[in-house]
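thought: fold this chain, then report.
action: predict
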Amino acid sequence: MVRPRRGGEPKAEARLSRYYLGVDGGGTNCRIRLTDADLVTLADANGGRSNLQIDAGEPAYRSIMEGTREVFAKAGIDYAQTANTYACFGMAGGRLLSARDAFEARPWPFAAVRVYDDIDIARAGAHGGEDGAVIIVGTGSAALAMVEGKRHQAGGWGFHIGDQMSGAILGRELVRRTVEASDGLLPGSPLTDAVLRKFGGDVDSIMDWSFPKDDRIAAAPAAGGAPQALLGRAPAEFGALMPLFFEYFEQGDPVAKELMELELGYIDNYVNWFKARGVAKMAAVGGFGTRLYPLMIARYGDFIVTPKHEPLHGAVILAKQNFAA
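observation:
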């Protein structure tokens, strides 16, 4: 529409700016990105922990709200422009639809919001919003594909019942193999010797490490009269063994090679699952997954592709796909 200015000269009516905001919400921190209508990054910011399963998502809500104010300030854009901003969040702890729906319904300042599991933004970023599959292989693991608009998801069920491809599971297997080698049940190697030294030089030390005690509740015996609660080690503590594992794998250590075949066998299961659903290409994200790229390319050929974008940019890609002008 054209309206006359004073003096009779016409002037095009100003159009409202349109922005997209993406969030990569992790268990310990979240990242926020603001882009223009063409997905050109205007500013990034960081927030605190943002797992939807922590305190019903309240810390995640605060982190995103604080990060949003920061990212608009960095971009030099009035915060009131959130009303013209379309947002997409990829959240840790978002595997459950009920958690995503509840978080989406919170009082956001944006024009519209869509909440996804964090693997959705990893997949969208890896393939630039096009069809394809992704595996997350880090401390945990999960898999997702989009094929002709249909979503296929597997894994991501956590350390105790899933995460087969993860560094945490492989780290646990490495500790188990070290114990079995020390017992003489299976052959050891320089790698298992190194793990044994790392934990004090004997199996007793490994066992003691594997069951840390919470002295805060030592004075309150559990059922059966146990003086202390025994707690299992966190997945990240097993995953922390991966640098040591790769050091010996690259030296040709026989136990490391056996465990790598176990790892690739788990990935085989997902590759076969993807291909049965018509997937043509797969990317991997996560620190462990990135290290596995040469082996995966050798094993699966051109089925393996490198990610086009990081998960954070995948969030703004999904924001635009959901709320295109």
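thought: worth noting. The CA atoms of residues 210 and 233 lie 6 Å apart.
final: tokens above.
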